[in-house]
Amino acid sequence: MTAFDPASFGKVGVLFGGRSAEREVSIMSGSGVLNALRSKGIDAHPFDPAERNIAELADEKFDSVFIALHGRYGEDGAIQGVLEHLNIPYTGSGVMASSVGMDKIFTKRIWQTHNISTPAYAVLTPDSDLGQVVHDLGLPLIAKPPHEGSTIGITKVTSQEQMQEAYSLAARFDDVVLAEQFIAGRELTVPVLGTGKDARALPIIEIVAPDGNYDYQNKYFTDDTRYLCPAPLSDELTAAIQDMVVKAYRSLDCEGWARIDVLLRETDQQPFLLEINTSPGMTGHSLVPMAARAIGMSYEDLCVEILRTARLKIRSENM
Q1: What is the pLDDT of residues 241-280, one digit of tens each?
Q2: Which residues are annotated as a binding site for Mg(2+)?
Q3: Active site includes 8?
Q4: Which of 26, 84, 286, 305 is catalytic?
Q5: Does 126 sit behind a cis peptide bond, omega within 30 degrees of 0 on the bond before it?
Q6: pTM higher than 0.85 for the full model?
Q7: I need a surface site. Which of 11, 30, 177, 223 has the fewest CB within 10 A?
Q8: C-alpha 74: how far from its chain's center?
Q9: Which domains does the chain have, with CATH numbers?
Q10: Active site residue 286
Q11: Which InterPro entries does the annotation name (predicted)?
Q12: Active site residue: 93, 98, 150, 279, which one?
């Protein structure tokens, strides 16, 4: 990593906490980032939008901010729009890419237009014929809210009788529900760093969860899940998946960093992209730091590398 002068970053805000269902995870992520930046001599300060008026961001006179918020209001373009208005450079993707990336349905639509493989799906509303959805997608299938992460509100549906309950659970979090074809196979995730032509995939991680259940508990709070990094794949398949992921990242106009989840179908080794996280976790169990370590980049250096990319995305004629 290139040498740097910590003072050159000025005063840095680390945004974490927030009001989403992923608040608890965001606090863990943001605390880690805050400590990492401070360990590098950077003048970093915490800011929790759930505990402080968002207008105070302007009063703090931050030179840039590191977004460690997850979910609604932090990963969906909302805070990015505020920061653009306040003229405060920030990490990660811009307003549009964040908003689209947070919406799993729109993400899939864009990927389909770019011929990027993603599971077949249906959008469910209160008027949907759930029996027809089961017929079209087959069983098992996955039902989930399209604007949540961290496996919140998700159900693996294995019978017609489960559909209404699965729909009702996901509908607690969203106005519409995403029903998705279930892909039986290996669970992978691929972090990406950079922007545009400089975007590059980090090593692929394979996730081996207890009984194949990579839920909220196994994701953040237990040590029972195994992570294989780099994933034990052939060089050819590794390169193909990384190329697909970078193409998917660019198709959404993402910037800075992100992580894309992939399922590798066991019958034919066909990869299917599930979703993108434009503000990935940075906890002790998180996967972007794990992939970075595999190429010799420490957690602290990763945080600095991401902070380097902080910028405004909307051009202003007054700048």
Answers
A1: 999 999 999 999 999 999 999 999 999 999 999 999 999 9
A2: 261, 275, 277
A3: no
A4: 286
A5: no
A6: yes
A7: 223
A8: 11
A9: 6-91 (3.40.50.20), 100-117+184-304 (3.30.470.20), 121-181 (3.30.1490.20)
A10: yes
A11: ATP-grasp, ATP_grasp_subdomain_1, D-Ala_lig_Van_CS, D_ala_D_ala, Dala_Dala_lig_C, Dala_Dala_lig_N, PreATP-grasp_dom_sf
A12: 150
